[in-house]
Amino acid sequence: MPSSFGQMLRVTVFGQSHSPAIGCVVEGLPSGIVVDQDALAAFMARRAPGQGSWTTPRREEDRPHIVSGLNVHGATCGAPLAAIIENTNTRSGDYDNLLKVPRPGHADLTAWEKWHGNQDVAGGGHFSGRVTAALVAGGAIVLSALHRAGIDITTHIAECAGIADTRFAQDDAAQLSAQVEALASKPEGFAVLDETVEEPMKAAIRAAGSEGDSVGGILETAILGLPAGVGEPYFDSVESLISHMAFSVPAVKGIEFGTGFGFADLKGSEANDAFRMRGDSVVTATNHNAGVNGGITNGMPVVFRTAVKPTPSIYKEQETVDYIAKQDAPLSIQGRHDPCIVPRAAIVQTCAAALAVGDLMTARYGTAWMERPTSYRREGL
Known about the structure:
Chorismate synthase, AroC fold; alpha+beta
């Protein structure tokens, strides 16, 4: 089962929802990079379960324990960085029947087809969103390194249960920067720009949960500060690698960059981003293409949106099959599940994007962007 991503900067995740622990290994970090444990804890808190009535009641401390890769001073030592996160609040018996009666929309059936009953179904096993805690742990370390290099990545809830937040101002770099800064200052995990939509979103999530149902939404991510010239055409394009990581987040079913599917309704004269000089730099008058041309960054902000489906684990009775008895069957599940994963998935998408961008940056600049974050751009010319 491949569970790794990246070529120059590589992350591997391991563990299952109810295994003793989950974790990650990050390879490719140079020595001497200080890991800010407080910042790591803050990122983990944004994804943590049990934040309120709009999330799963399962509570986990989610404190990463770094067991390899740091020296006694808290800086990377050149060895692979490995972190584990203990699972302390599990109820595996709630999932016993899923070995033969799969949840519609979940990976129970496909896992059976692949591993013939040997898969771990408790809590969703390795398919569970629980494993994204490990993704955040690894991504947060890279995210902090990117910030030191002048690159910031932020995600907000663009839409939840049909209720829309203010969209990122992708054509106005100054306004977009202000929006990103405002989101960074929010201490808790419900990431919206318009505070008036927060309570209606939470109310819609609670209402769906009270009916035994779930809702989905859209996440919008902005990447600021990426230098021009990062990425490759075709298979290692900026969009390709970001999409690869974005779809690694469970429940993500769609993605668009910039104007995205809206391009279908435009003429070329409307879709093209005119170039202009700003001092010695080339900028674009608009940003329909989300800072990417030909798979390579042009220096403008990268903005993309991901569609997140409703949580498939719902308490309403559903139609499924008993694939041992080979007959149709009803299903009523137990366990503890989010009525909407969108709020907690925002920081996951940010960290997933950080891992993709970190790999892209390392392919372009080697480890110089981490070792010399204030001067690597001049050196890389």
